[in-house]
Amino acid sequence: MSNTVYLDYHTAKPVDPRVLDEMMPWFTERFANPSSLHRDGDLATEALEASREKVAQFVNADNDEIIFTSGATESINLAIIGYMMKNRKRGNHLIISEVEHISIHNIAKYLERLGFNVSKVPVDQYGRVKLSKLERRVTDKTILISIQYANNEIGTVQNIQEIGEFANERGIAFHTDAVAAEGLVPINVERDNINLMSISSNDIYGPRGVGALVMRKRYRVNPVMIGGGQERGLRSGSEDIPGIVGMAKAAEIMQSEMDDEVRRFKAWRDRLIREVLSIIPDAHLNGHPTDRLASNAHFRFEGVEGEALLLSFKDKGISVSTGSACSSKTLEPSHTLISTGLLHEEAHDSLQLTIGRFTKNEDIDTVLKALPEIVGKLREMSPIYKGR
Amino acid sequence: MKSTSYSEKVLDHFRNPRNVGVLEGDDVAVGRVGNPTCGDLMEVFIRVDGDRIVDAKFRTFGCGSAIATSSMTTELVKGMTLEEALQVTRSDVADALDGLPPIKMHCSNLAADALHEAIRNYRSRGIKVNDSEGGEAFDKSCLIGLDEYLDRGLYLSYDEAEIFEGQRTLVLHTGDESLRAAIELTGVTNRVILLSAADHIVTTEELQRELESSNVKILTMSKLLEIRGDDEVEKVLIHNVEEDEDYELFVDAVLIID
User: Fold this and answer.
1) Average pLDDT of B220-237?
2) Which residues in chain A show pLDDT less than 70?
């Protein structure tokens, strides 16, 4: 990727070389299974527990509140399906927001087929959940509320502390999908009133295929995968020690470097937003103007289709994302953009730029330089672009 | 296969589209297909001499393959007779581009349709098409949710602008007063959508100009079917007349001036 500009960090992140170094010995030399009672097995157990401690510290949880999984999707399944199944005698109602990640919408559909009830709370034009709307959806059967910490597309950060408090005051468990937020917002499950939280390793520059569910004391879930009983019976299957060690190292690095990193990202993000909105006519910012992830700049250019934008950037060696339907598997536009009140034709016009650990100042220069020409060329041939 | 796994020829026509632009004159006809709602809208222009296409141009809003197929279609038909051009199919266009990703075969390969429409329009030149007159009276009895949401996000008059502050507001086109309200609302909220069942807004020249220079988002050929939400307005169900399709739009307020 030497000559390319990568501004798609929300979609995938590289593994930090320091993380990879930490992982390597656990593939080849120290390969034992922590379930084994010999010395090699003990070494693996020690690494597993030391990793648990590092991840716990990263989110201010206790060590025994961390359950390692194969990634955010599995954590979310375990949290939501696991909690609803475990507590179904107390109620059968789940509340999620309209802007949750597609995996949560699909889990909700699955639960509905099993006989559970699901309500979706709408968001404002910036993608934020309002407590008054949440309140109206609570019933005496509501046992779980699941709202994302921040949005993976438009970067809007929710008022999580307030939502957590709202849920806890009513004796409702609160789960948050913190995948987009981790590493960009200081997460503290104690302060934020979070009872269940899903995180992934790759989103803090660890390897893919690893994640964790943070499960606070008193909040119990049923396993969704049955097997040998690892992770206190909640996540069976031999522990992926290299991956878990990698996630822990990634958390440790993130904890010490996040403040600096976020400050750096913010300056770039604000420059991108300021300059794009000033040099491109009829451009709009998606998501909240200030309460947004430091890494995220998300735009809409009237009269320009997102996939055509993406292809034009691709030709210049610049990797970006779009919420346009034309680039998705289903040919449906981004449900997040639709939920903020955009029309389908407007959701097609989007461009997502996300900054990460290895972004350089020149990358921002390159994008800003390329953008006017690309948008101009596509607008030139667009029959629906009104401005000139 | 990824939806963007394009052949070199598709990429070439996307990067260097041939014949971008419009044609004008008595010997010109245009065909327009697609809908921006679906992500694609194409216009193919043909200039005809006798029964032969002597020039072709296009304008397209759409993805990579929408642009490439438009470009290729205009290349293919130059010099063809109208009869020959009518035989050009979507798959001819796709073949000429060394194929398209399967998922793109239908949604973005509409240029041949636009061409055929241009030919039909050329042949029926001079025949006056009935322009549908706008401003059709709104029958409130057809709207589901009218009583339920009254003063819970639905308003029938526009007195206090503060109610709409920061609200994503849908204004129904019921006459000039509704247009003035929509324009004025852009002062208190950045999201005002004007909905009209007609294919264009019929009003005074002055209001027309004001509307065009305002931030009001205009949705024509659209009908309001239903207001939805948990105890207050949260979304509306809209019928797109052209496509004969219904879809939901998230809004906070609806203004219907009698």
Assistant:
1) 93
2) 1-3, 324-331, 387-388
**Chain B residue with minimum CA distance to A385:** B61
HSE-CB at A148 with a 13 A cutoff on CA atoms is: 31
Same domain, yes or no: A28 and A144 = yes
- N-terminal to C-terminal alpha carbon distance within chain B: 53
Segment B178-200, tens digit of pLDDT? 999 999 999 999 999 999 988 88
Catalytically active residues of A are 326
Q: What is the pTM of this model?
A: 0.88
DSSP A227: S
Of the residues B55, B90, B123, the one at which a domain ends: B123
How close is the nearest chain A Cα to the Cα of B41, in Å?
7
What contacts B59, CB < 8 A, 6 or more positions away?
A381, A382, A383, B20, B21, B22, B42, B43
CA A275 to chain centroid: 27
Beta pairing class for B154-155 and B169-172: unpaired
Q: Which structural domain, as residue segments, surrounds residue A115? A: 17-254
- ipTM score here? 0.87
Would the CB atoms of A381 and B42 count as touching at under 8 Å?
A: no
One domain, residues B144 and B119: no
Q: Does B32 touch chain A (CB under 8 A)?
A: yes
User: Is residue B78 less than 8 Å (CB to CB) from chain A?
Assistant: no
Q: Which domain holds residue B157?
A: 140-255
Same domain assignment for residues A186 and A106? yes
- Measured between beta carbons, the chain A residues lying within 8 angstroms of B231 are 136
CATH of the domain at A330: 3.90.1150.10
Task: Please name which of B52, B55, B57 lies closest in space to residue B111, comparing C-alpha atoms.
Answer: B57
- Mutation for B interface: A129, A310, A326, most B CBs within 10 A: A326
Is A382 an interface residue toward B (CB < 8 Å)?
yes
* A223 & A362 share domain: no
Preferred mutation among A381, A384, A385, A386 to probe B, highest tally of B CBs within 10 A: A381
Rounded average pLDDT over B73-92: 93
Task: Count structural domains, chain A.
Answer: 2
Residues B151 and B192 in one domain: yes
- Give the distance from residue A224's alpha carbon to the nearest chain B alpha carbon, in angstroms: 31
Q: Look at residue A173 in the predicted model and tell me its pLDDT.
A: 98
Burial of residue A332, with CB atoms counted within 10 A of its CB: 0-12 exposed, 13-18 middle, 19 or more buried: exposed
Helices (H), A95-240: 102-113, 131-137, 160-169
Does residue B83 sit in the same domain as residue B17? yes
